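Reopening: CENP-V/GFA domain-containing protein still failing for me.
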Amino acid sequence: MLFCSCATDHVQTPREGTRGWSCVCGLVSVTALSAPLKTTLCHCEDCRKWTGSVGQMAIWYRREDVLCSGQLLEFKSGSRVRKSCAKCHSHILTSLPRAGLVEVCVGSAGISISLSAHFFYVTPLIDFGDEVPKFVDFPASLGGSGVRAESWDLHPDVTQAFHGKCLCGSVIVAVSGEPEMTAFCHCLECQKWTGSSGHFAVIFDEALVQIAGDLKTTSDGRRNCAKCLACIASTHCAKTPGLLQICGGILNSPPRLQGHWNYGQRVLSVRDGMAKFKDSPAEFGGSGAVLGEEAAPYVVTIQRKDEDLGLELSFSDRKCRVLKVRRRSLIHEWNQSCASDSMVCIYDRLISINGMMATIREEREQLGRATGKIVLIFAKFRYFE
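Support: Ran it again with your exact input. Result attached.
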């Protein structure tokens, strides 16, 4: 443990134009004495594995313009020194001693920001759909090639056992089953904990998860590697016991995202067509309220295969919603075969299957078995930014 002061020659007294923020527990505080140089989101493997999310989202300052007080733990990674709160393990900043720069994690700021650039935007976990410059590595001014990413693919969504490790490799995660849900949580605590724009949470039945290695666990269930302080996992919530959120950024091949939670607290908008929830779906302890409006219905036709399609429905007053689509079947096939304007979001409201509405379990199981294809009619939701 150490006490960090990034600018010991400054008196730590706020002045007009300064900006201040803190970690989840409040032990560590950071004050910036000048305007930021830039704000970036780095999607490199190291930043993913440290944050456990899409990558480190950072506000850049000169080292002498940042004051940091409180007890920190640090981990050296190449030319960078990554620092986290010693108590709640929130990611605070990354120091670049040779360059004389500090990257303050946006998550600890709790403010809306204007992004300057994406780094290592080759196979992002989320395609943000913005107009911000995207580089295959770094801009030339930072020692990179300066080559812009003209096209990119989302990370591969392959069928395999889930496994991964932290930044230093001391903690290894293995999962023997399919996730219940994959969501990106934009709440302020998740921003602060990960040091990213939010928490890329892959939610599993806890009994399916094996974690090997030394962990530091907070009273609210967040788990970090004891050595590099990478975010590993967190307890879901009291309303849904037995579920564990694995940080998708540490997995070698995380499943595709299925929705955004606590979207009203976002620091960065995402234009990906996924459901944007006020908090979280009802089956995961939230209100289920969606930040969007219902638009015109559309039709999706898929060919019936021998495998289980993995479609689970919830019925109420002859209306139903798609609760879960296992990635090895239905949603994977749709993403591969449908036009972008017809791509199904799993929380669009299902109107009918093969022209019928199933009201009981037995009817639901029989739908589609007598024909070689399944026709699904959905009410499309237009999600607010």
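The chain has three domains: 2-142, 162-265, 293-383. If you still see a failure, please send the error message rather than a screenshot.
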